[in-house]
Amino acid sequence: MASLRLQGVRAQGLEPVDLELAAGELVFLSGPSGSGKSLLLRAVADLDPNPGEVWLDGFRRSQVPAPEWRRRVALLPAEAHWWEDRVGDHLPEGAETLLAGLGFEPGTLDWAVSRLSTGERQRLALIRVLANRPEALLLDEATANLDPPNRERVETLVEDYRVGQGAAVLWVSHDPEQRERLGGRRLVIRDRRLVPEP
Amino acid sequence: MALILLSPFDLALAAGLVLLLALLSWRLHLGVERRVLIAAARSAVQLSLIGYVLHALFATTHPGLIGLMALIMLAFAGWEAMSRQKRRYRGPWGYGIGTLSMFLSSFSVLVLALTVIIGVRPWYQPQYLIPLLGMLLGNTMSGVALAMDNLTRHAWESRGRIEARLLLGASWDTAIADIRRDSLRAGLIPIVNAMATAGVVSLPGMMTGQILAGSPPIEAAKYQLLVMFLISGGTGLGSTAAVWLGSRRLFDERHRLRLDRLRGPDG
What we know:
The complex is a heterodimer of chains A (198) and B (267). With 198 residues, chain A is of the alpha/beta class. Chain A contains six helices and ten strands. Chain A has a six-stranded mixed beta sheet, sandwiched between helices. In chain A, strands 2-1-4-5 form a four-stranded antiparallel beta sheet, covered by helices on one side. In chain A, strand 1 (4-9) and strand 2 form a beta hairpin. The radius of gyration of chain A is 16 Å and the shape is globular. Chain A starts with a strand and ends with a strand. The model of chain A has no long low-confidence stretch (mean pLDDT 91). Chain B is mainly alpha-helical and 267 residues long. Chain B contains ten helices and no strands. Chain B has helices at residues 8-27, 33-59, 63-83, 93-118, 126-157, 159-167, 172-175, 177-197, 205-212, 217-249. The model of chain B has no long low-confidence stretch (mean pLDDT 92). The A-B interface holds A 45-49, 66-68, 70-71, 74-75, 77, 79-83, 90, 128-129, 132 and B 158, 160-161, 163-171, 178, 252, 254-258.
């Protein structure tokens, strides 16, 4: 259970952003491409140099070592990258139980990454992130390029985690139906600022 | 057997081969004739000059002059190593990382060889110091340049993979570990290959020179072995230092991959 608070976070294309997400809150962010949504998520995850401060409950980002911060405030980028041949080499110990709960057979860990389908890749990338037990989630187009069944699986996975762990979720999504369906606060980028979606 | 002295006419005959190569390049539209001729001219000027410089230097044993000569050689090696990079580090790092690595490795191996192994007295006697340093620097330079070029090129191409690991909470050195290993290996391969084929496929240049100059082949072989071992030690140390410093520079204190610290291929 942790809240996430952005204070004067700057990302290219955006005025400094102040935003607060309560523990377990879902906030959608949309806007034209190139408006700085992805860069904002990268800035929050501290992947690009940026002034401003982010708070996870009482913890200031600048006082937490960067690797620990990224485990606690986890970003799932639009495109998942894999650096080993085997799926299992990307997951921490104990990920088997998580996999089993999602309809993956135990042998999944030995699968070759190159043989995964787009849907499997995206779901496994999400599992990879969730296995770190993050306290806040930053999702960048988590379901783009997925067919409806796979989209639904990913949505369920995120929603279960959010409700179960009380994680704050900041979700960049292009899909108006998805934003409607899942509820939550909806923000849009207008004139370099985050405003509520009309 | 006395050393047969080469006359300018002998060299001119050999230079005819380079002209032939340039002609070939021109006929076959290889487009390298200018570069061949310029490189040949450069080598002629540089080697003649160094012949005179060494002639003068060997007459003295002034440590300051020898030190100056060594630093000039290092400066050129640093420049050459940098110019072989496709993506260089911005600012003084572009020159600094390679040069510092070569300085640390070549000079420490050189001093070790002169004082402990060969036991030259005084240890900075130029007849030993300058040729050994030249061979060490030349080979270390290739290793350092290859390793750094590999590191920066792969870091640039693998941004997504490196950042994926950072995002999962890996530290910078874990995220770049495999690229670092590959780069170091790339830097070491030439000298390992040279050692493996020495004497079977090729007679190394230094040994050839000594034999031509009339040394007994066994003695020449021993010196060649010594030099190869020194070179492999120097190249290993130099490449390791360069890859370590270089990979450290690719990340900042918040473990972010900073490709903005590299220049693109054209500025």
